[in-house]
Amino acid sequence: MTVDDDPDVSRAVARDLRRRYGEDHRIVRAESGEAALDALRQMKLRGDLVAVIMADYRMPQLNGIEFLERAMDIYPGARRALLTAYADTGAAIDAINVVDLDYYLLKPWDPPEEKLYPIVDQLLETWLSSDHRPVPETKIIGHRWSARSSEVREFLARNQVPYRWYSADEPEGRRLLEAASQDGETLPVVIAPDGTVLVEPSEPELASKVGLATNPSTDFYDLIVIGGGPAGLGAAVYGASEGLRTVLVERTATGGQAGQSSRIENYLGFPDGVSGAQLTGRARRQAAKFGAEILTTREVVGLEVNGSARTIRFADGSAISAHTVILATGVAYRQLTAPGLAELTGRGVYYGSALTEATSCAGQDVYIVGGANSAGQAAVHLGKNARSVTILVRAPSLTKSMSHYLIEQVENVPAIAVRTCTEVVEAHGTDHLEGLTLRDSTTGETKTVDAQYLFAFIGAAPLTDWLKDVVMRDDHGFILTGPDLLVEGSLPAGWPLDRPPYHLESSVPGVFVAGDVRAESAKRVASAVGEGAMAVMLVHRYLEKL
Ligand SMILES: Cc1cc2nc3c(=O)[nH]c(=O)nc-3n(C[C@H](O)[C@H](O)[C@H](O)COP(=O)(O)OP(=O)(O)OC[C@H]3O[C@@H](n4cnc5c(N)ncnc54)[C@H](O)[C@@H]3O)c2cc1C
Predict the structure, then answer these.
(1) What is the pLDDT of residues 358-411, one digit of tens each?
(2) Whose CA is nearest to atom 48 of ligand 1?
(3) Alpha carbons 83 and 144: distance in angstroms, whole number
(4) Which among 89, 187, 400, 528 has most CB atoms closer than 10 A?
(5) Is 89 helix (H, G, I), strand (E, B) or coil?
(6) Prediction pTM value
(7) String of DSSP letters for 142-211
(8) Whose CA is nearest to atom 13 of ligand 1?
(9) Dihedral of CA 227/231/235/238: which sign?
């Protein structure tokens, strides 16, 4: 970047620089300190790198030294040179201390081969040998204990959008906030790859800025899949690959529960395990390759039967229809109810977000509530970096709830301890979690411990109340299908066809169910994917007879 208030000089410097460096570098020219600072802020937001800044000393408003001092706040790593007239060399020498000036150049710089290029070569060489990695991805500037900041991180991570996290109280975080003209009072601030600044954005806002589709391309499909977990992704891959016009609608991020798993070890074809994020990324690409539309951040709140069409309604009132629907809405985490926990959720208390918070847990004392495989996986994952990980279970042992191979892994990580017959009765902390009161159910004794992080994996329930007047469910809200709908061998009340419901068909013909939301399902990734594929086969059978 070169800054000079005399347009002729400014153009001449830029021309000489372009001649020599134009192939490998972009030369940005400004005619005032303020204009140059604006340009630097824009570049910072876009994640561009600035190697060298050359400023004229004598400029109105901001002189070269004042400008360089402010430019340093934005790009501390850029090398700095001052362009001076002979009479100003005194000021230039003083500037070496003020702005840590690398060089000062005397005007005129002719011939550049002798007076300009050797200096710029050296500045570039110094810059290249320093740490100057580009950050073109989405940037989040937030606070470690801000619930909204951690939700935004979680959202981007689960949608496999690469991002870099900056704490608002670290120097680079402050620099980015200043470039975005933000005072840091409202966090998080998200900077999209194109430099757009979003302050405390909603998920749909974020989704559209980072390139995730949120709106359907048409209003009628062959198949609508609701839910983007393994069952929904499986259905979308098979539906689209077999020629059905397929749209998948996901409330938050694709991957569902499996997307939160650090290591799935029992899924066929992955003898060394696969992370939920990897599996989701591949499935998503595969579904898109076959032409399935994937909408994120769209919650479905209604299902209606309109003759042979099945219509789904979104939370904003809009709707789309299809010949068939596959419900693959899975289950959602249950929340702990002890006093203090609700207020501290997202501020040290997390439900299933152990993966995105893992780096922050380094060297900390972490508690995990739950005795199932999900809790075991999280403990093993967090146990690599945390100072201590304590698994709290109400039962007297893990054997009934956790797979044998995971219990062995838990036992082999020295940082992990298991406290059986224990429950959390209170959480303490003002800004963030600081302590937990635990109760031993055998003795009734309570004890308060220091704790910065608590991750809860205490089972899950299907969120199907929006379907209660449409399809038949069991007492826990899981959706009944196929043979489970028959009452003493008779067809369910209101069933309009002569044939009985197909195996994964709900009490509404043409509405199928796959994965964890289905009553009596296996609650495994493989079975969810399998049911997604099988539901598509039944969709074909249904369509043939339509
Ligand atoms: C941490 C963890 C580790 C696990 N590890 C393993 C393992 O190692 N092996 C194994 O086999 N299983 C494992 N499981 C279980 C496995 O992940 C689930 O059985 C599987 O994800 C179920 O898939 P699904 O598609 O039926 O539902 P889900 O994965 O629950 O996905 C449902 C999706 O539907 C979306 N949704 C819900 N309602 C709506 C709506 N109204 N509108 C739009 N979208 C909606 C949700 O946001 C969600 O993304 C694990 C689970 C967890 C939580």
Answers:
(1) 888 989 999 999 999 989 999 999 999 899 999 999 999 999 999 999 999 999
(2) 256
(3) 43
(4) 528
(5) helix
(6) 0.76
(7) E-TT-HHHHHHHHHHHHTT--EEEEETTSHHHHHHHHHTT--SSS--EEE-TTS-EEES--HHHHHHHTT
(8) 524
(9) positive
